Amino acid sequence: MPDAAGLELIAQELNEVAPGSVSGTYHEHGQACLIVSPERVLDVLRWLRDTPGQEYRFLASLHGADYLPARPRFGVLYELLNMPRVERIRVRAALDDPGEGSLPEIDSCVELFPTAEFHEREVYDFFGIVFRGHPDLRRILLPEDYVGWPLRRDFPIGGEPVIFTRDEPSVPRWFE
Amino acid sequence: MEVRREKLRALAPLDEPKPPAELRIRQLRARDLLRGDLSAEELERYAEESVVTTRLEQMLAWGRANSVFPATFGLACCAIEMMSIVSPRYDVARFGAENMRASPRQADLLILSGRVSIKMAPVVRRIYDQMLEPKWVISMGACSSSGGMFGNYAVVQGADKFMPVDIHVPGCPPRPEALIYGFNKLQRKILGNPDPGWRRRYNAEGTEEWAHGAGAPTPEERSAYQAAREAVLTAERGA
Asked: Which residue of A29, B7, B108, B182 sits 20 to 30 Å from the alpha carbon of A153, by its own alpha carbon?
């Protein structure tokens, strides 16, 4: 686990190698996170994977997040692990919502980490984030004809009103 | 709670052995009946003692209600409770439904034990369609009856949206006793309504699906089928 100072060093080196890639960092609960711009996420991941002294070779998880009132709205999070040192670092790519009718896009990292294939399909399935260059971007868990991105915050929760007879006197026929 | 301990003998007076002389008399009378030696009065008394009359439908329903074969089909956590009804502690064998069949072709009761996700719903429906009539469905627990706590994007809000359900058992999960009680209710239903077809029970006649391999029926076939069905129905209604 890089400590806060080590995280700042990594961020500085990254900004020298790939200018404008790291826009922020945070270090909370002993977890280090780099906030990167989605255009440079592949450079960041490749640098973290291949640079001697870093060598985060294992992508433990890749997931999406929706921070709806905040901007940029979406996040794609890469949890990297260095196995010999047992050090973890998180990379968060912050994506903007392109608006109605189009989906946010980010580069696929399947070339770097083959395990990301199913992870990216899952993120696409639930958040509607398109991974450019993914070999087979389809829904993975939901039915293939499902409409909508159910883990987005503006997706309706669903369910149905339960018809309680106690509500009938105050609001007659409320369930219609 | 007071525990009542009764002597087994008192519980089963019918098993009291009859005196041997009486048994011998009955044997002789049965032999005389078979030979045709009983006079009219004796024959009448013999019939009153040893023959029960009923309707064929009622007898069939009685047989069906007391020999239900549930499908071995668990959907979620309720399935654990469903499994325990066949255990010696709850013992649904008392009511004749202990024989869980692994094939829907051999089952006539489907217990929906758990939430039905929208991806599972077509599978459940296919299993139901594969069962031979007469067939019944118990929706076990809150989830399969109404969606339960899973009011979200992935779960069907009540399995009766896509298939006919006879009995809903509430609970989360229902205790095995509750499921057995629901099963007893189903037995009452089978006994009281001997009609075996769910389509008539749910006013869904004419919704039969056709096998894919056979191709869609021609209009002549369809009308012939409808005519035959109408004839059967009118005959039954007239009877």
From this structure: A29
Q: Which residue of A has its CA nearest to B154?
A: A142
Chain A partners within 8 Å of B154 (Cβ): 142, 150
Question: What integer is the mean pLDDT of B132-146?
Answer: 90
- Residues of B whose CB is below 8 A from A159: 147, 151-152, 157
pLDDT tens column, B183-225: 999 998 888 876 667 777 677 766 666 655 566 677 887 788 7
Domain B63-201 grouped into CATH 3.40.50.12280: yes
* pLDDT tens-digit series, residues B30-52: 888 888 887 788 788 777 777 77
Contacts of B152 in chain A (CB under 8 A): 150, 157-159
Of A143, A159, A162, the CB nearest to B152: A159
Among A143, A148, A157, whose Cβ lies nearest the Cβ of B119?
A: A143
Is B154 touching A (CB cutoff 8 A)? yes
Q: Measuring CA to CA, how many Å separate A112 from each of A49, A87, A150, B104, B173?
A: 8, 19, 28, 47, 46
Kindly determine whether residue A155 and residue B153, on different chains, have CB atoms separated by under 8 Å. yes
What are the DSSP E strand ranges found in chain B? 109-113, 136-140, 167-169
Long-range contacts of residues A152-158, Cβ cutoff 8 Å, at least 24 apart: A152/A66, A152/A68, A152/A126, A152/A127, A152/A128, A153/A66, A153/A68, A154/A68, A155/B153, A157/B151, A157/B152, A157/B153, A158/B151, A158/B152, A158/B153, A158/B157
pLDDT at B214: 62
Band (pLDDT 50/70/90 cuts) for residue B12 is very low
The H-or-E segment that residue A79 falls in is: strand A74-82
* Contact flag B151-A158 (C-beta cutoff 8 Å): yes
Evaluate if residue B137 carries a pLDDT over 90: yes
CATH ID of A4-147, from 3.40.50.10490, 3.30.460.80, 1.10.150.130, 3.30.70.420: 3.30.460.80
Nearest CA distance, A142 vs chain B (angstrom): 7
Per-residue confidence band for B178, with pLDDT thresholds at 50, 70 and 90 = very high
Please state the domain extents for chain B: 18-51, 63-201
Closest-CA distance, A159 to chain B, in angstroms, reads 4
Select the more confidently predicted residue: A100 or B202: A100
